[in-house]
TrEMBL record:
Subcellular localization, as worded in the UniProt entry: Cytoplasm, Cytoskeleton
Designated gene of the protein: FSCN3
The Fascin-like domain, residue ranges: 20-122, 259-367, 407-484
Gene Ontology MF terms in the entry: actin filament binding; protein-macromolecule adaptor activity
Organism of provenance: Alligator mississippiensis (American alligator)
KW Acetylation (keyword) present: no
Similarity field: Belongs to the fascin family.
Protein name stated in the entry: Fascin
Entry keyword set: Actin-binding, Cytoplasm, Cytoskeleton
GO cellular component, as recorded: cytoskeleton
Keyword set includes Cytoplasm: yes
Length: 484
């Protein structure tokens, strides 16, 4: 679990780059303000935890009460007793000396054995990508926004649809939950068209990635009734109040050059024969960084696998080597090499097989994001979006823009700023919004929730240290990879 910790003055606990110093001077949740929370023991609503900074060093307390990052001499030097409070705040009490971690608005200390509000209170904020899925462990289902009735249900066992994705937008200490249709969860049971006081919730975090959303009046968002409508409840049970924040999964569809979608029929057989995307033609894209292969999982939890007959069948298990495919990207399209060394293609009847010794036009598939109507791009320096201080798009923002995706022909997308026209490309390789004409972009999925974007000028989108978004990457480097 990775978090940022906000003190009473609104600043973030920061692990400075030099001398392992710790301050409360961070104004945004960046790399230096992100802490990895490790739980070593649970005690009801309390837990014994350790916090690791961006360089992998522990947050620890010296005998004089000074706080820094380093390697602890004893386990108790870096262990804290974490206490959850009703308003979502945390207190952190050092296990060895019993002193509370506190901030004076600039410096971080651990000198008092009695809590001194508000100096000892820390408000946690999840340090994850803003585009998330909300999983409810008690019902084993995901939240789903229903645009037809403007309500949210917690009834989706598999989050393969775009309606299961939500964007968390923080405004001060409160959080607004935006749906894929750009409406907002509100304290009324109806979705609201714009953020307001009615859509502002307090996000409480607990160890284990648990999160709950409550209104400032104390009521908590929970699923209720037989259909599990998400609504405010006065005194929910401990199980019902908690969700798990998960990364919005990457579900894709594969389309042949004949514009037929790869689908599962008769339970396990795989054909390319449908003209439209259906639940049986979407697959979870899972990338293995070690083997540089991908797996495709269907909504029935089975994986596409290559069998002895060279056919591709949807009956594979995760650990089977036959479910791994080597992938090569080219302008938003892929060729897939199966476990037998042959390339995937289709027979005239539409059956998907791995029989080609060399890839040809029949072995090229288009990949389309099936559950992402927009992109939220986060790179090395922050989110991509527009800023009031700059005409060009930036890559170092704390709050992201939603980049609307308009799928075009095979492998091509058009980028549109929400309500502000198409992306336009300047001669210096920077981007602006408000363009009248659509440009062609290619998406290449390079990992789990990681992609590279090939711009119309033939270069990859790159996040520059200056904060400018540029299209000048000749190769896919770390500055050209974007969490989405």
């Amino acid at each position: 679990m990775r978090v940022g910790l906000i003190d009473w003055a609104g600043s973030y606990l920061s692990n400075e780059c030099f001398r392992d110093g710790v301050t409360a001077l961070g104004k945004t949740l960046g790399r230096k303000q992100t802490w990895e929370l490790r739980v070593s023991q649970k005690r009801g609503k309390q837990a014994v935890v350790e916090l690791l900074g961006h360089q992998g060093h522990h947050l620890l307390v010296d005998p004089d009460g000074g706080v820094r990052c380093g390697h602890p001499a004893t386990p108790g030097q870096s262990q804290f007793l974490l206490q959850l409070h009703g308003d979502g705040a945390w207190t952190l009490q050092q296990l060895d000396g019993g002193k509370f971690l506190e901030s004076d608005g600039e410096n971080v200390l651990c000198v008092s054995r009695q809590p001194r509000a508000p100096r000892h209170l820390w408000l946690p904020q999840p340090a994850i990508h803003a585009h998330v899925a909300l999983y409810h462990p008690a019902s084993r289902c995901y939240a789903r926004a229903d645009p037809h009735v403007d309500q949210v249900w917690v009834d989706q066992p598999v989050p393969y649809g775009q309606e299961c994705g939500f964007v968390l937008r923080f405004r001060g200490s409160l959080c607004h939950v935006e749906t894929a249709a750009h409406t907002y969860v509100s304290r009324a049971e109806k979705l609201a068209p714009q953020p307001s006081a009615d859509t502002a919730f307090r996000l409480s975090l607990a160890p284990g990635g648990l999160a709950s959303l409550s209104h400032p009046d104390g009521r908590v968002l929970c699923p209720q009734g037989g259909r599990r409508l998400l609504t405010l409840v006065d005194q929910p049970s401990e199980e019902d109040r908690w969700f798990v924040l998960k990364r919005c999964p990457t579900w894709v569809s594969l389309r042949t050059q004949a514009r037929r979608y790869v689908s599962i029929i008769c339970d396990t057989e795989v054909y390319a024969g449908t003209d439209e995307v259906t639940p049986k033609s979407v697959f979870l894209y899972e990338y293995d960084r070690d083997t540089k292969t991908v797996q495709f999982k269907a909504i029935n939890n089975s994986y596409l696998a290559q069998r002895k007959s060279k056919s591709i069948v949807a009956n594979g298990l995760r650990m089977e080597p036959e479910t791994n495919f080597r992938i090569t990207w080219h302008h938003g399209q892929v060729v897939l090499q199966a476990f037998n060394g042959r390339y995937l293609g289709t027979l005239p009847v539409g059956l998907v097989v791995a029989s080609a010794a060399q890839p040809g036009p029949n072995e090229v598939f288009g990949v389309r994001l099936s559950n992402r109507p927009f992109l939220v791009l986060h790179g090395r320096y922050g989110y991509v979006g527009s800023s009031a201080c700059h005409e060009a798009l930036q890559c170092n923002l704390a709050d992201p823009d939603c980049i609307e995706l308009l799928p075009c022909v095979q492998g091509i997308y058009h980028f549109q700023a929400h309500g502000r026209g198409f992306w336009s490309l300047s001669s210096d390789g920077t981007f602006r919004t408000g363009g009248k004409f659509a440009l062609n972009f290619y998406l290449e999925i390079r990992g789990n929730n990681v992609l590279a974007v090939l711009a119309p000028n033939g270069y990859y989108l790159r996040g520059d240290r200056s904060g400018m978004l540029r299209a000048d990457g000749e190769e896919v480097t770390s500055e050209c990879l974007w969490e989405f």
